[in-house]
Automatic annotation (TrEMBL):
SUPFAM superfamilies per record: TolB, N-terminal domain (SSF52964), Tricorn protease N-terminal domain (SSF69304)
Residue stretches making up the TolB N-terminal domain: 23-122
Record bears the keyword Cell cycle: yes
Keyword annotations: Cell cycle, Cell division, Periplasm, Signal
Gene3D superfamilies: TolB, C-terminal domain, TolB, N-terminal domain
Name of the protein described by the UniProt record: Tol-Pal system protein TolB
HAMAP family in the cross-refs: TolB
Length: 421
């Protein structure tokens, strides 16, 4: 159901040249029951290339979960702040910290999180990082704050991948960046369009489809060693790779027998096995969170709908019933939510379903290519508006929306990377 294109992938994903245009993030809406948090300036943070406290504030604000209060003062992690005063000012928590340049040139970044209601310390971190990792450390601190105050792991230190199309000429780039769109790096580029990169669960590999051999072939690129493995080079179309949660297998859509069907293969390309068996087209497979099932798109009922079957094959159960055209299923890592694209009312919209209750919600219009954040709380997708394709993020409750755009062409095909250890 998707046209396959060439992907010229390099092993320099983490070392590629920085892209010229960073993404611009626009935020709309807020989450329900926002947590008020005061963020103080970090002591001596001017020695770092960027203000750590500003990175933290931006992350917390972007999540929509927090009402960020500017403490309007600098407070070191070694200080004893008046927590009662901050509580009176409306803050339930206070973030303080410091930055110190070490003799070897690294930065010692420390932070503490205080509960102003119970007047206790909730958390603290102390890390020595290189100056170029200042932003990453800020994201890590924001992740810690998010988790301590919500009980859910934060996603600020994760990365995203997407395809950038240069509108001035026929040039396509596979780009990786921080979850906030900063730190863009070009991982691959070529004259043929790029489509459907898929991160491995440990973030060290990317599966993709390439037409460089004059036919669609599925590869796995190891981003650490540079080794590239052919996973599927069968007769016909080899498409739609997606990883099992443990990273040992991939689900694929192959047309080797005529009509496209679902197959499972080991990550090294061995053990190819067909798992779907219908007279229609079965494609876009996605493993469930526990790896025991596969969600996929099939037209076996006439029009495309989302189905679910055992990862070992067997009888399939239809999942989507509203609307006559439902494609691109994605499952959150916690197994609670299914996202997909549905054509209704003349357009393509992003929907999410609570798998326990079956209740569905329309989250966004003019949407395609959804990808869950690793904590299951946000969905990134491609959207078209004003003649340009951009990326957008919406929370699974639909309350918080972000738009990530660039002045240099279109960006699409988002893939949200996993938590990094």
């Amino acid at each position: 159901m998707k046209k396959l294109h060439t992907l010229l992938f390099s092993a320099s994903l983490m070392m590629g040249a920085a892209a010229h245009a960073q993404l611009r993030v626009e935020i709309a809406g807020v989450g329900s029951n926002q947590i008020p948090v005061a963020v103080a300036g970090f002591a001596d943070e001017s020695v770092a290339p960027e203000q750590v406290s500003a990175i933290i504030r931006a992350d917390l604000e972007r999540s929509g979960v927090f009402k960020v209060i500017d403490a309007r003062q600098t407070i070191s992690d070694s200080a004893s702040p008046d927590l009662g005063a901050f509580k009176s000012a409306g803050a339930d928590a206070l973030v303080v910290g410091s930055v110190q340049r070490m003799p070897d040139g690294r930065l010692q970044i420390r932070y503490k999180l205080h509960d102003t209601v119970k007047k206790t310390q909730l958390s603290q971190l102390s890390d020595a990082v290189s100056a170029r990792n200042t932003r990453l450390e800020g994201h890590r601190i924001a992740d810690d704050i998010y988790e301590k105050l919500t009980g859910v792991r934060g996603i600020f230190a994760t990365r995203i991948a997407y395809v950038k199309e240069n509108r001035a000429g026929r040039d396509y780039q596979l780009v990786v960046a921080d979850a906030d769109g900063e730190g863009e790096q070009v991982a691959a580029h070529g004259k043929e369009p790029i489509i459907s990169p898929a991160w491995s669960p440990d973030g060290t590999k990317v599966a993709y489809v390439s037409f460089e051999m004059r036919k669609p072939v599925i590869y796995v690129q190891n981003l650490v060693t540079g080794q590239r493995t052919v996973v599927a080079n069968e007769k016909g179309s080899n498409s739609a790779p997606s990883w099992s949660p443990d990273g040992t297998r991939l689900a694929l859509a192959l047309s080797k027998t005529g009509n496209t069907q679902i197959y499972v293969v080991n990550a090294d390309g061995s053990g190819l096995r067909r798992v779907s068996n219908s007279n229609g087209i079965d494609t876009e497979p996605q493993f469930s969170a526990d790896g025991q099932s596969i969600y996929f798109t099939s037209d076996r009922s006439g029009g495309p709908q989302v189905y679910k079957m055992s990862a070992g094959g067997g009888q399939a159960t239809r999942v989507t019933f509203n609307g006559s055209y439902n494609i691109s299923p994605r499952v959150s890592s916690d197994g609670k939510t299914l996202a997909w694209i549905s054509q209704r009312d003349g357009g393509y919209s992003l929907y999410a379903m609570d798998l326990a209750s079956g209740q569905e919600q329309r989250l966004a219009d003019s949407a395609s290519e959804p990808s869950f954040s690793p904590n299951g709380k946000y969905i990134m997708y491609a959207t078209k508006g004003g003649g340009r394709v951009a990326l957008a993020v919406v929370s699974v409750d639909g309350r918080v929306k972000q738009r990530l755009s660039t002045q240099a062409g279109n960006i699409r095909e988002p893939s949200w990377g996993p938590f990094m250890k």
